[in-house]
Design brief:
The structure holds 2 protein chains of 2 kinds. Chain A is mainly β. Chain A contains 2 helices and 9 strands, in the order H-E-H-E-E-E-E-E-E-E-E. Chain A has a 4-stranded antiparallel β-sheet. In chain A, strands 3-4-9 form a 3-stranded antiparallel β-sheet, with helices on one face. In chain A, strand 3 and strand 4 (70-74) form a beta hairpin. The longest helix of chain A has 14 residues, at 7-20. Chain B is mostly helical. Classes of the chains: A mainly beta, B mainly alpha. Chain A binds chain B through residues 5, 10, 13, 18-19, 26, 52-57, 65, 75-81, 88, 91, 103, 105-108, 110-113, 115-121, 123-131, and chain B through 1, 6, 9-10, 12-14, 16-34, 36-37.
Chain lengths: 131, 50
């Protein structure tokens, strides 16, 4: 029996991110709470090494997986000042108004040094079609 | 997102200056919608069972 999901359903989820995300942060270790993702490493339970309050998105658009898959691109976030030295291996998207951690992904581990800058290139969030 | 707010954020990004800049390599985040449906079903069952 075939399964399907209308694009508008998936687009609503992706559009929610675009409409609500106002923080993007680079973390050392997986953030599982808003505080992890937005508090600087060394402060309480913070895991954040760098954070920007200017995330933007491009999409939604058809996904690379074919079918009814949909994706949105998180635009490049250039030259964010590093607040704490450490090994960045996760990227988190948050909504500050409700202190919500909305999305977490991984990145290739990079050593970051306080006072320098880090650039997050553009990357995609995709929701696959049902199988 | 409000187009004016988007433009403001893009302008702010463009004005930053790099200092020994490190470029990350972010893994694409793919959400399996079947997993999503399973999670929803689990939550519904949890609610039904109190």
């Amino acid at each position: 029996m075939a399964k399907s999901c209308a694009s508008v359903v998936l687009d609503a989820a992706l559009q929610y991110l675009e409409d609500n995300v106002d923080r993007i942060s680079v973390c050392e270790g997986q953030p599982t709470t808003y505080e992890h993702a937005t508090s600087t490493k060394g402060v309480a339970t913070g895991k954040k090494l760098a954070m920007s309050s200017t995330p933007t998105f491009t999409g939604p658009a058809p996904g690379d997986g074919g079918g009814s898959s949909r994706k949105t691109a998180v635009d490049a976030e250039p030259t964010i000042t590093v607040d704490a030295s450490g090994s960045g291996d996760h990227v988190a998207l948050c909504k500050s108004g409700t202190s919500a951690l909305l999305y977490v992904t991984t990145c290739t581990l990079q050593v970051l040094t306080v006072g320098n800058t880090v650039t997050i290139p553009t990357w995609d969030i995709e929701i696959g079609s049902p199988t | 997102m409000d187009p004016k707010e988007k433009a403001r954020r893009k302008l702010e990004k463009a004005m930053r200056r790099p200092v020994n800049d490190v470029v990350l390599e972010v893994q694409k985040g793919t959400i399996d919608i079947n997993d999503l449906f399973k999670k929803i079903e689990e939550r519904v069952k949890e609610k039904a069972n109190g």
